[in-house]
Hints:
By secondary structure, the chain is mainly alpha-helical. It is built from 7 helices and 2 strands; from the N terminus they run αααααβαβα.
Amino acid sequence: MLERVRFHFPRIAKKKGLDLHRLLRALELICWGLEVFPEAFYKDYLEDAEQIIGHRDKKDIHPLALTLKLRFPIWTNDLDFKIPEVTERVQVYTTQDLINVLELN
């Protein structure tokens, strides 16, 4: 997943007029101490996540279930996460939101 994010960074940096090295450094800081969780850790939230977002995109169920379990914000540009059913339960940050917070522009 992290490689997928890193793959898009050159395009994002060019499109937004950002320094690629600063953007990659910000990603390193964000991911420092990153932990991978097995499905068993958040399985109690899968049904809830499926009801909230499953009708839009089945691939979003697991990330939302983990987010609900951890009660952490989620970083995604996926518009499925911008629906009220999601944003009422968790804080959703887009890449632009994070760029603004990290003052990369």
